[in-house]
Amino acid sequence: MPNNEKGCLWVVATPIGHRDDMSLRAIEILRSVALIAAEDTRHSRPMLLQHNVGTPLVALHEHNEREAVASLVRRLEHGESIALISDAGTPLISDPGFRLVRAAREAGIRCMPVPGACAAIAALSVAGLPSDRFVFEGFLPPKTAARRSRLEELAGDPRTLIFYESSHRIVESLADMRDVFGAEREAVLARELTKMFETVIGEPLSQLAARVVSDPDQQRGECVILVAGRGEETDAKVAEGQRVFAILRDELPPAKAAKLAAAITGAPRKLLYGDKGEG
Ligand code: SAM
After folding, report:
1. Does the CA dihedral 256-260-263-268 come out positive or negative?
2. Could you list the residue range(s) of the whole structural domain that residue 26 is in?
3. Where are the alpha helices (DSSP H) in the chain?
């Protein structure tokens, strides 16, 4: 541990399922710090005890973050080292901790990562989708209109798209992805990674959406959805979609023509008729 009058803030990854996905260094640091700031202390205590970590815990979650951050930074300034963990995986990745890390850095506290599990990266590593460039989108908005509009913003992105989704919205989200990105766009559903019912299924969005609707088991547990970026295949579909759109537009209102052209060719509707392709 660096020699520093102030304490250090260690940002420590914990498992996303399998208890052994905890690094030796993570265990050593969690044992050595004065305090562990955890999203849910009742959730984390048993996991820590499995690794013989008996360090005192304090809660840091979205509802107490403001007060908790001020008191944790004071303790760090007085020389205590603190570890930050979340319920699972890497803190700050769709989890609390950003305000603490920011405040600690502003106070001149050294912040050090102890890397480990992260569901997005674990999913990407086995998805078989291009991994040289990707974008992590976290959770989509829960309401349909906002979700679709976020997806429409991403329809032309050539990078692999990574989303977190809760099991009770998986059906709606996959249907929206199919409609916005096109039925043929390749996607992967990575569920329950590192756990007993781990499954990783890759197929075109139309098939994946239909499979999840018809199989309630695929609607359970925790999941990551990955979608291939817009590729050459999509470019060819867009060219075909534009050709069909031009024909239909002579006979139909443009929004209707775009919707039909998208359905016929599999081209994303937004790429045929901008943001106006509703209806
Ligand atoms: N900080 C975590 C990380 O590093 O991955 C993510 C926390 S976020 C609140 C929880 C979401 O991560 C879940 O809803 C799911 O989308 C994803 N997730 C977490 N564990 C997972 C697992 N074992 N398999 C698949 N997805 C998982």
Report:
1. negative
2. 8-117
3. 24-32, 41-50, 65-77, 98-106, 119-127, 144-154, 170-181, 205-214, 232-249, 254-265, 270-273
Phi/psi of residue 166, nearest 5 degrees:
-85, 155
DSSP 90: S
CA of 119 to the centre of ligand 1 (A): 5
> Over 80: is that where the pLDDT of 233 sits?
no
Integer Rg of the chain from CA: 23
Q: Which amino acid is at 128?
A: G
Ligand 1 pocket check for 198: Cβ under 6 Å: no
CATH number at residue 187: 3.30.950.10
Give the total number of structural domains in the chain: 3
Residue 279 has a pLDDT of 35
Shortest-distance Cα residue to atom 25 of ligand 1: 223
Percent of the chain with pLDDT over 90: 85
Residue with the bigger pLDDT between 160 and 63: it is: 160
Q: Is ligand 1 within 6 A of the CB of residue 242?
A: no
Clarify whether residues 35 and 126 are in a common domain. Answer: no
pLDDT, tens digit, 9 for 90 and up, residues 23-38: 999 999 999 999 999 9
137 Cβ below 6 A of ligand 1:
no
